[in-house]
Design goal:
Length: 104
């Protein structure tokens, strides 16, 4: 049992993946960095107003820009069938690269 499991029993059955986590590009070298984590849902229309959604996005950009380095952006797709949020990566990838982060 790990230390976190002693502090909170939820860590015994929550907070980890049981799905394979592999690189889609086998030529990439291993890397080490601080995980800048987020979740995304794209399958359904957002419940936030356009103004609040815009503010939330800027909060995310500030979070990524102000985090420790080296950083790795890790985004969990929360949709029932993960993959709908993949388009997001293409539009934001340029910004993330300008901030000198690794995006996978």
């Amino acid at each position: 049992m790990y230390a976190l499991e002693y502090l909170d029993e939820r860590f015994r059955t929550h907070g980890f993946t049981t799905q394979p986590f592999v690189s889609l590009d086998a030529t990439l070298e291993p890397l080490v960095g601080y995980a800048m984590t987020a979740t995304i849902r794209a399958h359904e229309k957002p419940l936030l107003s356009p103004e609040k959604l815009r503010a939330r996005r800027f909060e995310y950009y500030e979070y990524i820009a102000s985090g420790p380095r080296p950083a790795i952006v890790v985004i969990q797709d929360m949709d029932p069938s993960p993959g709908f949020g993949a388009f997001w990566a293409r539009s934001i990838l340029r910004c993330i690269r300008r901030w000198a982060l690794r995006a996978h």
